[in-house]
Amino acid sequence: MTHAVFVFDAYGTLFDVHAAVRSHADAIGPDGARLSEIWRAKQLEYSWVRSLMNQYQDFWQLTEQALDHAFACVPSADPSHRNDLLEAYRELDCYPEVPSVLRALKESGAQTAILSNGSPAMLDSAVRSAKIDDLLDAVLSVDELRTYKTSNPVYEMATTHFRVFPQAISFQSSNRWDVAGATGFGFRTVWVNRTGQQDEYLDLSPAAVLPSLDGLPALG
Questions:
Q1: Do residue 97 and residue 193 come from a single domain?
Q2: pLDDT digits over 90-144, tens only?
Q3: CB of 194 within 8 A of CB of 174?
Q4: What is the average pLDDT score of the chain?
Q5: Rounded Cα distance, 36 and 110, in Å
Q6: List 9, 16, 93, 143, catalytic entry
Q7: 81-91 burial, b for 16+ CB within 10 Å, e for fewer?
Q8: Could you give phi then psi for residue 102, rounded to 5 degrees?
Q9: Which one of 20, 37, 83, 216 has the largest count of C-beta atoms within 10 Å of its C-beta?
Q10: How many domains does the chain have?
Q11: Average confidence (pLDDT) over 15-37
């Protein structure tokens, strides 16, 4: 293959971040989608703010804080379901194509990894629940650095681990800001635009845009 290593963002790319609320949709009620959107947006916002402040808290703490804020913003959602949602978040569904894509990459001779804001415990739980642990050569967490994407040292974790130059790595993310950061670092980047978002960061464009991971092995 053209690239020796394929590195994936976890949340939103391999794992469906809205699956937790969907799994309790009846209990949460008609504003579940809004609750989930706020939860995700604040989870990310808190990571960026913490990075800028140099006051790190791990991603699980931020996930809890973001959910509490989401409940405060959506009064129709009963906060007594907080623990149920958090437990569901530990075992998010992976997207249906993920196992077959990872397997195809491995069979081609490439190495595969996750590089994520998630804490080690979060990632371990998600990977085991999705049964993709045997399809990954490494699971890298920013917790080791105590900062978050899009800081360059985060992306450097992958080059250091695999002992390759950035150009040897293909990096996949559903988050356009993450793609921008990885592009700036020097990775070949693929934006997995699952929801048809408008492009941005036009000076840091991905090498390819896919609607899912299905087409990734063919890119090489």
A1: yes
A2: 999 999 999 999 999 999 999 999 999 999 999 999 999 999 999 999 999 999 9
A3: yes
A4: 97
A5: 35
A6: 9
A7: beeebeebbbe
A8: -60, -40
A9: 20
A10: 2
A11: 97
pLDDT score of 212 more than 70: yes
| Separation in Å, CA 102 to CA 18, 94, 155 | 22, 12, 20
- The tens digit of pLDDT for each residue in 49-89 reads 999 999 999 999 999 999 999 999 999 999 999 999 999 99
pLDDT at 147: 98
> Has residue 1 got a pLDDT over 70?
no
pLDDT at 220: 83
Contact of 191 with 206, CB cutoff 8 Å: yes
**Structural domain ending residue among the three candidates 70, 90, 110:** 90
9 counts as catalytic:
yes
DSSP collapsed to 3 states, the chain: CCCCEEEECCECCCECCCHHHHCCHHHHCCCHHHHHHHHHHHHHHHHHHHHHHCCCCCHHHHHHHHHHHHHHHCCCCCHHHHHHHHHHHHCCCECCCHHHHHHHHHHCCCEEEEEECCCHHHHHHHHHHHCCHHHCCEEEEHHHCCCCCCCHHHHHHHHHHHCCCHHHEEEEECCHHHHHHHHHHCCEEEEECCCCCCCCCCCCCCCEEECCHHHHHHHC
CATH number, domain of 42, equals: 1.10.150.240
Q: Which domain holds residue 65?
A: 19-90
